[in-house]
Amino acid sequence: MEQKILNTNNLEETLTEAISECEHESIFVLTDENTRKDCWPAIKDFLVLRNATIISIPAGDHHKDIHSLMKVWEQIEAGHATRHSLLINMGGGMVTDLGGFAASTYKRGIDFINIPTTLLAMVDASVGGKTGINFNGLKNEIGTFNNAHCVIFHTPFLKTLDQQNLLSGYAEMIKHGLIDQERTWAELMNFDIATPDWRLLSELVMKSVKVKQRIVKSDPKEHGLRKALNLGHTFGHALEEFSLKHDQHPILHGFAVAYGLVAELYLSSVRFHFPTDKLHPTVDFIREHYGRLSFTCDDYDELIDFMRHDKKNHDGQIITTLLAGIGDLRLDQSVSEEEIKEALDFCREG
Asked: How far is CA 291 from CA 7, 46, 186, 190, 320, in A?
């Protein structure tokens, strides 16, 4: 069943209707410390939430862990939740991932609604039914496939974001453009993300979500086509985990994906002749807006070790998604250590 996506300018009316469709003997709202400050005030006075219990966890992907999960379970339990309770996840991808997992597992599953408040959550984390937490230093190592009852988009929330968080979400949109069609990719390359036209950005967000929805609908549990959504993520997750381990201020997920796209487009050009007139503008756009992650060739073995723990791997091989052209997918590509090091060279030096 296709996940219900609701794009609204009347958040109270839309949320009230969505809640009426769910079991909601009691209602809990999960935020992190940022969305509690910036976004919760927009809904706290809604009549439908007058008896809701607010749960807040620390912000940041490094808090998407078992400790935060236990805090959510404990507060739901303290609020006398039953199997007929409802959890509303309001925040970025960390909140929708962790909250979705908490709801999926509490008493073997309660209803949940996602209200993504960041660009990354809107175009990626909140849509598609993946939930989970990080574990043992690895991204999304424990989780479930379970759709929210619905996902409610209220794009004015995007105006609360700083430029870094806008860029983080935009990287996933670039990925969607690359796996979709040239027109989608070109619109994204030509959009001025530094000084966004909010109306146009809202339209691009919905186009991006439709790309993901189309893929997820045909392959909900990632046995085939959904692997296209992993473009940029084999390298991206390794770079993100490296940054979480070594940097005082780790890079955001979308920045890691952007760097991962550079590496995997390079491999696509070497192996499948991905066209240079698409490679260079994409790499130039990423380098202009995202810069480069600082690492050296001495770090390659550690990065490769992170890649070896990727969930996509099988038979001891590191697996990634590559492209022969925009929308021309090459799934389940095994890459060697030598190829990985060449791609990392390209990331660092061009």
From this structure: 32, 42, 21, 18, 23
* 55, 102 contact by CB (below 8 A): no
132-168 pLDDT, tens per residue?
A: 999 998 888 999 999 999 999 999 999 989 999 999 9
Question: If you compute the radius of gyration of the chain from its CA atoms, what whole number of angstroms results?
Answer: 20
- Tell me the pLDDT tens digit for each residue of 106-118: 999 999 999 999 9
pLDDT over threshold 80, residue 1: no
Tokens matching residue 188: 């994204």
Lookup: tokens for 36: 């509690």
Q: Could you give the CA distance from residue 288 to residue 283 in angstroms, rounded to a whole number?
A: 8
pLDDT tens-digit readout, 169-195: 999 999 999 999 999 999 999 999 999
Name which residue leads in pLDDT, 72 or 311.
72
Closest CA to 6 of 157, 123, 151: 151
Decide: 298 and 127 in contact? Cβ < 8 Å. no
Q: Counting beta carbons within 10 angstroms of the beta carbon of residue 146, is it exposed (0 to 12), middle (13 to 18) or buried (19 or more)?
A: middle
pTM of the predicted protein model: 0.91
Tokens of 294: 């600082």
| pLDDT tens column, 191-232 | 999 999 999 999 999 999 999 999 999 998 888 999 999 999
239-249 pLDDT tens trace: 999 998 998 89
7-26 as b/e, with b when 16 or more CB fall inside 10 Å? eeeebeebbeebbeebebeb
